[in-house]
Amino acid sequence: MGLPRNRYVQEGIEGVYHCFSRCVRRAFLYGYDEYTGKNYSHRKAWIVDRLRELTSIFAIEVCAYDVLDNHYHTILRTRPDIGAVWSDREVAIRWLTLCPRNMSRKGIPIKEQINVLVSNPEYIEILRKRLSNLSWFMGQLNEFIARAANKEDGIKGRFWESRFKSQVLLDDTAILAGMVYVDLNTIRAGKAKTPEESDFTSIQERIRAWYRKNLATEKTGISTKSDFTNDPDISASWLCPIESKTYRRGILPIKAAEYIDLVDRSGRMIRSDKQGAIDADLAPILKRLGANPDKWADTVSCFEERFSLVAGLLPNIRKFASNLGKRWFVGIGAAKTAFISSRLPMV
After folding, report:
1. What is the mean pLDDT of each run of 10 residues along the chain (347 residues)?
2. d(Cα 57, Cα 203) in Å, to the nearest integer?
3. CA distance 82 to 85
C-alpha cells in the first residue's frame, strides 16, 4: 500500500525509520565484480564515512547500519527537538558545511556568507527544518555516493534503482527488531560468521568500541566470545547510544551490553538452522520490550519482508493506520505473531 512519504514522515515530529537503497546496475558496485574483474569494496567505506559526516551536521541520529555488496540499510531517528535549539548562526554554519559555496567564483568570505543567511530569519527556519528532514538526509547521502561512483567509473546515469525506501518503526519493539535485522544482514547473507567479523556494520563498530575501552590492555583484536556481562557505554561516539545517559538520550530501554549479547545470540540462531530456540535468559528481555521469543529468529531474519511501510505492536499499527485514514497496513498479520500485542500502545 503505497503512500507519499510526506504522509507518514511528518516534518517537525520525531520518528524512527528503517531506510535502505539498492544499486541499479548489474555489477556488484560495492564488492568484487566477477564480470569486470574489479573490486569496488572500498566504496563501502564511503557510505560509513558519509553517514558519520552527515550526523555531525543534521539533527538526525544513526542507530544502526549495514553496507552489503549492492545495497545498504540504516536505522535513523529524526530529532527536530535538537535542531529547534540551534541558534540562527549555528544553522547557517551547518548548512554552509553541508552545501559550501564556490569561494573562487563568489568571492565572498565564509563569515559574510554566514551573515547573509543569518540576516534572513525566514530562510533560516527553512534550513532548520531541512536539517532534521529524513528525505534531505538520505538525498545528501545517496547523491554524494552516486556522484563519487560515477566519477570513478567515468560514466553518467543512475546509480540507485529508485528513491530510498523506508519503514516506520512505531515503538521500542519494532526498533529493536529492526536494528537487530540490520545488524545481522551481513551474517544472514553469508558474508560473516559473527557480529564482530561483520565489516561495515554498526554492531562491529559498537563491539570494537567496547573492547577498546575495556579490554585494550588484556587482548588484541576482536574476541569471538559472547561475554558482554559488564555494562559500559559501548557505543561509538557518532552512533546513537543504545541506552540513555545523562548527556544523551539512547534509542532502547535496555543496557547496551544486553543489546550486543542479543545480536550475537540471534546471529547464532540464524546460522544454526535451529530457529525458534531462543536462550531462556534472553526471553525476559524480549518479553519486556513486547517481542515474542518463539518468533524472534523469524522476525529478525525476515523483518523487511514481514512488514511493509510500518512495523510495531498491533495497537500501534492500527492507530497509525487510523491517523492516516487507512483501515490497515501490510504487516498486521506479522505483528500478531512476532510481537506481544497485549502491550499498551505508546503515547
Report:
1. 74 93 70 71 91 96 93 96 96 91 56 91 96 96 90 84 90 95 91 89 92 60 47 66 91 92 87 55 82 88 88 90 82 86 45
2. 23
3. 6
